[in-house]
Amino acid sequence: xxxxxxxxxxxxxxxxxxxxxxxxxxxxxxxxxxxxxxxxxxxxxxxxxxxxxxxxxxxxxxxxxxxxxxxxxxxxxxxxxxxxxxxxxxxxxxxxxxxxxxxxxxxxxxxxxxxxxxxxxxxxxxxxxxxxxxxxxxxxxxxxxxxxxxxxxxxxxxxxxxxxxxxxxxxxxxxxxxxxxxxxxxxxxxxxxxxxxxxxxxxxxxxxxxxxxxxxxxxxxxxxxxxxxxxxxxxxxxxxxxxxxxxxxxxxxxxxxxxxxxxxxxxxxxxxxxxxxxxxxxxxxxxxxxxxxxxxxxxxxxxxxxxxxxxxxxxxxxxxxxxxxxxxxxxxxxxxxxxxxxxxxxxxxxxxxxxxxxxxxxxxxxxxxxxxxxxxxxxxxxxxxxxxxxxxxxxxxxxxxxxxxxxxxxxxxxxxxxxxxxxxxxxxxxxxxxxxxxxxxxxxxxxxxxxxxxxxxxxxxxxxxxxxxxxxxxxxxxxxxxxxxxxxxxxxxxxxxxxxxxxxxxxxxxxxxxxxxxxxxxxxxxxxxxxxxxxxxxxxxxxxxxxxxxxxxxxxxxxxx
Length: 561
What we know:
By secondary structure, the chain is an alpha/beta fold. Among the domains are: about 1-90, Gyrase A, domain 2 (2-Layer Sandwich); about 95-110 and about 430-550, Isoleucyl-tRNA Synthetase, Domain 1 (Orthogonal Bundle); about 170-255, no CATH class. It is about 50% helix and about 15% strand. It has 19 helices and 17 strands. The strands form five sheets. Strands 9-6-5-13-14 form a five-stranded parallel sheet. Strands 1-2-4-3 form a four-stranded antiparallel sheet. The chain has a three-stranded antiparallel sheet with strand order 10-11-12, with no helix packed on it. Helix 5 links the parallel strand 5 (about 120-125) and strand 6 (about 160-165). It is globular.
């Protein structure tokens, strides 16, 4: 319906341009929005205020001229001018409920569009090093990243999900030493325990599996334990595979999969890091100082130059990141989104600066970043900090085991990414209206229950069958529900464009609230079969949109609760 209003206004603007009231060489694009107060109509537009200067007349006068030139439309019941020149549109009942038929006709595709035109997009998210179980921060990244992928796919993009991890370096060496210590019978309390060793119970599990010569299979590798506690290289290889498998199992339990696993070590093995260094040097953006090699990142907006190669000859972390992103570009991903924790904030400027210094035709501001803030887990009002499995932090598996996948995914994706999140275990477990995911899922289950009651009465109703005279839907609550359904396609488009999946969660809660209010106030299974059928059609449209929205968040839509 919003598109209908926009088209009508565009026609009126064109008419005024042809009459010379508005300049023909300017473009005027009406922005149509939903009204907050339905007393002011269903939609409103401020185009008269925007274009008044160009017309050389007061906004209200221009609004009157626009309204006078609006084409006739059965979709619009009334148009009013408010305040200094806002144009308010009251939609007809017939147009309001046309969305019910559209939803049921399109089914799972409702809300989807082809605006992406199959453009390749790579989304990198989670990217946890295989040194321990995934923590709740990784979980938030997984929920946001996967929801963003689903949103992009709903907008017609060809999405590749990528997981990048470090399988070498200091952290991996500490892991190997920790497992070796456990394999030799040491505990974290013993004097010989590695200074930076990992202390969680999972280290003992890895050591026992290695000594037992188990074979572990992860999504990207398979390794058999050699059983020799003195073979540090074999322990390292086994430990990485073991923990990659654990991560894979946690992600599968979370409903998240990846298309590509990319190893940092491959950048060194394939000579891509050295090639990047050579290119940066040849381009004149490096210099030596204090025994280290620096990159002139200040030439590309950084606040100071950055060390690229340390005195000991090792590279700082951002250099392989630059090589990695050059590889992404060379693989044909002109649109890349990195979903990472807020602690990666400092890498954004450095990586982008390094990429510009390569002079490889990469546009400024590439890639895009979505940085999420930290998660605090609480129970009974107290922060939960320690997991026995991990030793020092709450794991993603802890949350899944406590509250289930659906609640975990919803809660982790339901807030703005740039806001800190408090995950209340008690709330996530509760079966009350205060629990948003329960509230939304219950609305879906309620509608499915109505279908079962109809079937018990001998009335079979296909879930995507529009039946009954929709003009019988005359209540304000019914029109509000229809208007809310009509908002869904725009919401899906905007949430993807803004990289903000939380908008979907907010929308679903609002839709569920409207439905529950309507359900409690008005009987659907009436003796008036025409009215019953029309209301069930509206119910079915609500059910479909709830299911479609939950799917974008990776959350199930249960039929019974």
